[in-house]
Amino acid sequence: MSNLSAEGGHGAVPLEGVPTGVDVPAPEPEWPLYEVFVRGKRGLNHVHVGSLHAADDRMALLHARDVYTRRNEGVSIWVVRADAITASSPDEKDPMFAPSGDKVYRHPTFYDIPDNVPHM
Amino acid sequence: MSEHIHTSPEDEHDSAYSGLLVNDAHWAFGTDFEDPLAGVDTTIPDGVDAPALAAYALMLGDDALVMSHRIAEWTSNAPDLEDDIALSNIALDLLGQARLLLARAAKADASVVPALPEGSPAPPEDALAFFREAHEFRNVRLAELVNGDFAEATVRVLLFSTWRLATFERLRTSRDHVLAAVAAKGVKELAYHRDYSARWFVTLAQGTDESRRRLVAALDALWPLWPELFDTHAVEAAAAAAGVGVDPATVREAAEGVLDQVLGAADVPRPEVARRAGVLGRTGRDGMHGEPLGRMLAEMQSVARAHPRGQW
């Protein structure tokens, strides 16, 4: 940080010993984004249902309850900060997923699944 | 409604909402739009005076109705979308409690229900909500105050839900089946209201200088109406003696204990502000209300009163 600044449009002004607020980090303009996962009933997986803003983890959970489960949709909620998610990029789609496209022997398609086996 | 409305099994794998329409069993009672007390035993317990039971149910119902309306006024005005929905949910929970309790009052003693013009389709609980004057309402005065800022809403919901939850925890063993059922349902709702407001209380107290200043100001402003919640009115004493109601004085210790925990976590001292006196000793439970309740009711009741024969 230099000891002169033109910030504020007043031309270069000295900063030594003056409370300018230049080194104070700007407050976050918005609450961080959280992704919300809801489990509909026991035995099923958590499924991504949407996202919301909250100040902290616990508030995110309360907000998720209010926004995404008010019609009795869930028995369990996960929330995770969106910036904590590492996602694959569309650019690497081919190296990531194309190689498994022709390996039909990896699919258990040669078995008959009985009707009473759920969630297969 | 049909018992099983299954979506296709493949869809169930992908959608968190697929279990929603499986059957009606998970809907709590009281969602019937025709009769809110359908399926609940409404006989008056032996030895209980029906008008006294009705008067007691009116008090609890009016608390919920007036508080619900004040919180509902936050809709579209909260600081952000998520809290807008949270406050609306709280208002709706309380409105549901109000509907059941006013219906209970009307069922126990039909003479409490205002007369409506011939041909009006309004059910008794609507008649009670929309066709009584302010002095006929029996809610505590904490519920009726004009809304302030978000800190004021936080403190008001915290005080109200802490007190009401302590009351409902005891009301679950009421000899009246309806009040016991309303309390059993309400305890879960109020526990959430208290959790929500307590977390915001701590967050605002430990946030910025400005958020703490506003929170403490709101607490000081509402504190004078806190002791009134634990006054024992003759109606409440009679209901408690008959085993159908709760004497508010008996839940004070539990409620104060919870509140002290929240104040401690927030590092906010108990205010030293005197209680607000009644008018000639009369408070909300006696029908003595501030002017704002009249204005609130004027808005809340205007449509129903303009169209008493209206079909909704």
Topology diagram in text:
The complex is a heterodimer of chains A (120) and B (312).
Chain A (H helix, E strand, L loop, with lengths): L3 E2 L7 E2 L18 E7 L6 E8 L3 H12 L7 E6 L11 H5 L23
Antiparallel strand pairs in A: 1-2, 3-4, 3-5
Chain B lengths: L8 H6 L35 H23 L8 H28 L15 H7 L19 H22 L5 H29 L3 H14 L11 H8 L10 H15 L24 H16 L6
Helix pairs in contact in B: 2-3, 2-8, 3-4, 3-6, 5-6, 5-7, 5-9, 6-9
InterPro entries (chain A): PaaB, PaaB_sf
Pfam families (chain A): PaaB
Protein name (chain A): 1,2-phenylacetyl-CoA epoxidase subunit B
Written description of the protein model:
The complex is a heterodimer of chains A (120) and B (312). Chain A is α+β, with helices and mostly antiparallel strands. Chain A has two helices and five strands; from the N terminus they run E-E-E-E-H-E-H. In chain A, a hairpin with a 6-residue loop joins strand 3 and strand 4 (46-53). The longest helix of chain A has 12 residues, at 57-68. Chain A is elongated. Helices cover 54% and strands 0% of the residues of chain B. Chain B has helices at 9-14, 50-72, 81-108, 124-130, 150-171, 177-205, 209-222, 234-241, 252-266, 291-306. Chain B has one domain: Ferritin, core subunit, four-helix bundle (Ferritin, Up-down Bundle). The longest helix of chain B is centred in the middle third of the chain and has 29 residues, at 177-205. The chains are: A alpha+beta (120), B mainly alpha (312). The A-B interface holds A 31, 38-41, 44, 46-47, 49, 52-56, 58-59, 62-63, 65-67, 70-74, 118-119 and B 9, 12-20, 26-27, 80-83, 85-86, 89, 192, 195-196, 199, 203.
